[in-house]
Each structure stands twice: as C-alpha cells, then as structure tokens.
Amino acid sequence: MAWLRFRNRTPTMADVQRVKQARKRLRLLSDKELRLVRQELSNQIQRPKMDHASPFVIEAVALITESFQRSLGIELYDVQILAALITSTGRIAEMQTGEGKTFVTAIPAFVHALVDHGVHVATTNAYLAARDYSEVKPVFDLLGTSIGLLPEELDQQATRNAYQCDVTYGTGYQFGFDFLRDQLARQSSPTDALGGTLRSNMTEDQPSPLRQHAWNFAVIDEIDSVLIDEALTPLVLSGPGNVSENPSTYLLAQSTVQSLVPKQDYTVDIRMSQIQLNSNTVEKTAPQSPQITLIRPWRQYLQNALRAMHLLKRDEHYIVRNAEIALVDQCTGRIFSDRKWRDGLHQAVQAKEGLAISPSESSLAQMTRQRYFQGYQGICGLTGTTTGGELEFRNVYQLECASVPTNKPSQRKVLPRKFFAHDAARIDAILEDVCASHVTGQPVLIGTQTIQQTLDVSAALKYKGYRHAVLNGLQDEAEADIISKAGQSGSIVVATNMAGRGTDIKLSQKGIEAYGLHVIGVGANPARRIDRQLIGRAGRQGAPGVAQFFICAQDQLIVKQDPRLAQAICDHSDAQGRCQKDFSKQLEELQVRVEEQQVQQRQQMLQRDNWSDSMRKALFSRSARFE
Length: 627
Fold this sequence. Notes:
Blueprint: H1 13-26, H2 31-44, H3 55-72, H4 78-88, E1 92-94, H5 101-115, E2 119-123, H6 126-142, E3 147-149, H7 156-163, E4 167-171, H8 172-188, E5 217-221, H9 223-229, E6 235-240, H10 248-258, E7 266-269, E8 274-277, H11 281-285, H12 298-310, E9 318-321, E10 324-328, E11 335-336, H13 345-352, E12 361-367, H14 369-374, E13 378-383, H15 390-397, E14 401-403, E15 411-414, E16 418-420, H16 423-440, E17 444-448, H17 451-464, E18 469-471, H18 477-484, E19 492-496, H19 509-513, E20 517-522, H20 528-535, E21 544-552, H21 556-561, H22 563-571, H23 584-608, H24 613-620, H25 622-626
Parallel strand pairs: 1-13, 1-14, 2-4, 2-5, 3-4, 5-13, 15-21, 16-21, 17-19, 17-20, 18-19, 20-21
Antiparallel strand pairs: 6-12, 7-8, 9-10, 10-11
Helix pairs in contact: 1-3, 1-4, 2-3, 3-4, 3-5, 3-6, 4-5, 5-6, 10-12, 10-13, 12-13
C-alpha cells in the first residue's frame, strides 16, 4: 500500500491558504456529504503517486479541520494547520508548548487512515492517550473514521478491538509490548513461526491470538521523549523464571556487602554507574551452606547488592509503596508499578529495603525502541524541542524536522542561572524568589528532578507557611487538574520537571497581570532539551512569563560527570554558599558531552540488538505484519 511521504519541500503558509480555500467549499456541505467526500478521498489513494501538497493532502486536511469546527466548535490556527501539513508529509513539527499539539496530532492520523487503517497515535503516558482520544473522538466520528483506545489493563479482546479501528491511541510502550506479545504468539502457533499464515488455524472457536493486525503509520506526540529520551531503555517482555531460587540468597548477599570494605574489597564508579569487585572478594565470601541455591554467579549477587546500596536511591530511582518496589521513570519522573529490574537487581533492592523477595523473572522477548519504530512504513511526530536531536532523527529514523512559528510572539523572559555550593543555599534562594513572586500574585511552578527534591522544597515552603501543591509522578488525572490550575494568581506548585507534560497551564487574568508564570528549575538536566521543556511552561500563547534555573554543586549531573566543576562552584561561593560567578558556559559544555555520550549509548544499543538478520526480515516483512 502506498505511503504518502513527500520530500521535495517543506509545507509553507501558502499551503495553509490552499487548505483554507478548500474549506470554503466544504462549509456548504452537510455532514453526510462530508462523509462522502471522505470516502472519495480514500478511494483516490489507489491512483498514481501524487506530488507534495497534492489536492489529496490539501482536501484531507481541509476536511478534518472543518470537522473540528463542526464537532467541537474549534477553529484551528494557521500554525496548527501548518504543523498538520508538516506531519502529514512524514516529518517532525517542532511546535512550542501551549500551541495546541493535541489537535494537530489527530490530523496526520486522519490523513494516513485514508491511505490504510492501522494508524497508531503514541503518547508518553496512559492519561494523555485517554485524554487525547476522548477530545478528538467526535471529530473522527463525524467523518465516519473509527478510533480506538488501548486499555491500560491486559484485556486481550479490548486490545484487539482497539487495533481493529482506523486509528488507535495508546502509549509508545503499549504498542511496542503488544508487538512483542504478538511475536511470542506467532512463535507458539503450530504453523510457521514469525510470518507463517495463521488463517488456516483460525476458526470461530479459535480466535486469533494476535493483537496488532496492521503496522502502517505512527504519529508520535512528544516524539523526542519517545524516540530519544526513552530509547536508552529497550522494550523487554518478561515472564516467570524457569528455575526456583531461595530468597535467602539475596539476604545473604545483602548482609555480606555490608561487611565489605570500600576500595579494599570493591570500588564504586559513580560517574559510570559501575561496581568493580576486587579479585579475591568473590572467593572469600562465597556461600558454603548447601541450602543456598545460586541461579547466577555469586559475583552478580554481590554486584547487585552493592548497586542497590550505592547507586540506586530511594525516592529517586524507586519508591516503596504498599510494601513493594515501584520504579521511577528517569525520563518522566512517573511511577511504574508493573516494571522491574532484571537479572536479580530488583530482588537485591527488595533485600536492601527489608521487603519480601519476589521470584525473579526471565526475559521472554526484547527489542530496542529504535528497531520497533523503524518497522513502521512511516512515522511523524510533534514536540516543542527538537534542537539538538535533528541528526539522530535523520540518521536513525530518516526524519526531517521543521519549525513552526508561534501563533503569537513570545513574551517569555529567561533569566541567567544562579549557582550554589550546596542545596541548603539553593533552597534559601528559591524561598526568596517565591516570596517576591507571591507578594505580587505571580503564579510559581518549581520543577524538580527527583521525588526527594520535591519533598525537600515542599518542607521548606511549609516551614515558611506557603500553601502549595506537590506533584511527584504519582498522579495522572489529579496531576493534570493541579497543573492546569498552576496559572492562577498566587498558585505555587512543586513538581518533578516532567510532571504534567502535555497539560496546558492556563493563566488567570490576575496571573497575566502579575507577569505570568514564574518557572524555577531545580538543577540542570543531562539534556538541554529537557531544560527547554521546563522553560516552555512559561510564556505560552504570547502570554508573559519568567524562567530561571538554580544549579547546585551537589547536583548529580555535576557530581557524576564533572567533579572539577563542582569544586570550582564551591571555590567561588561566599560563606552563605552563593556562587559569585556564572558557570553557565561550563555547564552547557558538560550537557553537550553527556548528550553525545547518550547518543553513543543509543547507537550501541541498536547495534547490540539481539535480533538476527533473518528474524528481523521476518518481523518486518509484510507477511509477518498482516497475516
């Protein structure tokens, strides 16, 4: 089936005017006649290849923008239509936060659903997928295009029903894991594994075990987060291990490492997140009791216990909730109760925290996110921050980026960073800033990097008597509600810096008069793009706003990656811990180095992808996808 991928030039405002001209004729039609136009467009795709911004694309975009007006009463901005044309032609649209990406995402999904059903719209979390689905469903319904939502729970029939629709909404990881589950189902079928025809085995009494029936086109919201930030973690589908083990082995490893002497028995490389055991440590601590069963080398038990002790921090890398370990996503700050570390590391953390030891799981199927999204016939996406990732998008995904102007000129003011020798000095300065803003009624959003930071800042605010809301990734709907009210005059919200991403912050009139939202960033992120995402919270849709980062020598990024910078910040700080020198240049150079390291790590992951060439050809062949 042909895929619309036009590369000769990027759409312009002249193409937007063509869409608006086409809508003038569509306005005269009834709803029933609009659905007939949709059917005619769908039939046109069988005709010869079309050029960029062909009548088909212009008509399709005009059709769904007219549906937006009729079903929701929304008249899309010119910049939204431009972004829709950019993504519909297989590109990434860099569209600033607050410019209406949710509605834009629906347009390329509709355009490519006309080519062939099986369009997947991927978001960063389940709440956003459900919210976006419910918001745009009336638009699709008016045009007779079916739309589905992947359920959060593992409901196989509901999942298959969602995939049967022309357009399916879900999270990026849901699509990936469903693909892996389908491959396991293929392997276990009595016919040819991976690509063999299953129809011969399917009767009314024996429904297909497969979920995804098509794998044509993907529209990815916050595409930099899905394809870059999260791509350091592969998709791993796990199941119960085949060998039983004694939980006491993990407890023994935990008690053993507590008696070890640092540097003499082991070394910890904080910067590289590595544990190195000295040559005789393993031998002298090896368990002698026959009741201790090992399903992996004793060295690995010790390394996991040391990693749990020194490298994995509670309320940063994980939380303890309902007597269980729940992992914190390092990209988004969200909590994932259904995710576990592999190879005994999860059990080592349970032993460290004094919790019941759960059975270890083994990997059933694994795939890099890069490899998964490369399997689509085409992808596109939207984000507010592509700068710095253009080369990786082009080399790995063959995607070009195009910037979309803001609907209104930005009034955002980004103030110079402030540097501090220690966290206590930083919190004192943050409280002074909050006080100055609160007096004028200016709303404040404090973006932290870890749950512990939110607790520390919150405790300081409570001590000073400031009422505030705290968001740390534990909420979804409640989070969105609080974030949406963060623009009210006098509001103070402390949140992990990715919390609420995708939720619009609407300023009250008093908030606007107080010079808009004041965003305070607690520490620098490894990637400059993530800093810009937080900055982008302020000054949306031409509103005023202020953003500033407060950097501390004790921040993990600086401690792990550049201890000399940490020392320099301390050397130039006064007795109160406030640095008298601007180290922004050095910090940005550090971020560039870390970004380059992460690009290399993602490239190495892709190269190490353990799928054989023959397996990949089977997985990505049309027969494997559609039979």
